[in-house]
Amino acid sequence: MVSLGYRLRASVPATGPEYQTRRFEARALAPSEGQELPIGSKAQMDLNIRGRVALVAGASAGLGEAVALALAREGVRLAVAARRIDRLEAVAARAKQLGAADARGFSLDLTDPASIAAMLDGVRSAFGDVDIVVLNGGGPKPGRFTDLTIDDWDGAYRLLLRSMLVLLDALVPAMRANGWGRIVALTSTSVKQPMETLALSNVFRTALVSALRTLADQVARDGVTVNSIATGRVDTDRLRSLYGDDQAKMREAGAGVPIGRVAQPEEFAPLVAFLCGQAASYVTGQTISIDGGLTRGLFG
Ligand SMILES: NC(=O)c1ccc[n+]([C@@H]2O[C@H](COP(=O)([O-])OP(=O)(O)OC[C@H]3O[C@@H](n4cnc5c(N)ncnc54)[C@H](OP(=O)(O)O)[C@@H]3O)[C@@H](O)[C@H]2O)c1
């Protein structure tokens, strides 16, 4: 169950059609003064996705791994995909311990269309139709606009945009036919506030968000929701590769965030899991920041 820091209890049975009204009683778990709520400890909300098939791309580490494990706690049948199969096997084993109905790793290189097709074949033959997909993978090469070559732009297009369009092309028809689906893309604050040294991210992640916003309207009446996350600074291999792998650099990266520190992946995952759940049935077409207040726009 997802951790939200407060208790929620459904007043209707946890089954039934998408449009069934659900009412919840919420009680704040206010920590006593000076006492902090431990991250990820108060798991109280049932997202009603037990047994659903969830595919998380880029799940061998970092944000994808954390999201996969959050979904595992909800009892999904979990497919985790990336290039490092040994790490995926470890994530799948942990997912089963946490409550996944099943969990398996699938080899995937997002830059290779044949690899995407083989991964999808494997997932479908193991689990059937995918109900939930988390679109995620490696970040692009850093660089200012004028530092980049046309090959860099081509490569980032294949990694960040084309790969996700291929996944959507393959997965959306079954979601629509089944009348239920959840699509969540992990992007970056660069889609709201371009970053000078991440030009490839600025361009292709914005294109992906725009594609998803367009898709959201088309599939909304089929029970399929489509949302994006604008990710701030989270302590993962990717952040360390951009900011350097020492504590001083991490503190520096955190100092620029209103919350005053970078996030841990476990703080990032619960909202993504929530968007994958039944409870988020009326949230679609959104790009939601998880960034500790980093994006300064009024609607950031
Ligand atoms: N962490 C942050 O602060 C932050 C902020 C904004 C945006 N983001 C973006 O969010 C995404 C996830 O970031 P992260 O921090 O979790 O990074 P990470 O710890 O480096 O993890 C990246 C994941 O993507 C997989 N991956 C990389 N290239 C792939 C490929 N060609 N095909 C399939 N899988 C691939 C990696 O697994 P394998 O190596 O096993 O393939 C790994 O599982 C990235 O796009 C990153 O740029 C991160």
Describe the structure.
The protein has about 300 residues and is an alpha/beta fold. Helices cover about 40% and strands about 20% of the residues. It has 8 helices and 11 strands. Strand 6 (about 75-80), helix 2 and strand 7 (about 100-105) form a beta-alpha-beta unit. The protein is globular. The two termini are about 25 Å apart. The model is unreliable at about 5-35 (pLDDT under 50). The structure holds NADP nicotinamide-adenine-dinucleotide phosphate. NADP nicotinamide-adenine-dinucleotide phosphate (NAP) binds near residues 59, 60, 61 and 84.
Straight-line distance between termini = 27 Å
- Catalogue the unreliable spans: 3-35
Please give the number of β-strands. Answer: 11
Structural class: alpha/beta
Can you list the ligands bound to this structure? NADP nicotinamide-adenine-dinucleotide phosphate
Indicate the percent of residues in helices: 25-40%
Q: Please state how the strands of the largest beta sheet are arranged side by side.
A: 7-6-5-8-9-10-11
Q: Can you write the helix and strand succession as a string?
A: EEEEEHEHEHEHEHEHHHE
Determine the number of helices (DSSP H or I, runs of at least 4 residues).
Answer: 8
What is the beta-strand fraction? 15-25%
Whole-number mean pLDDT: 88
Sum up the overall morphology in one term: globular
Profile the largest sheet: 7 strands, parallel
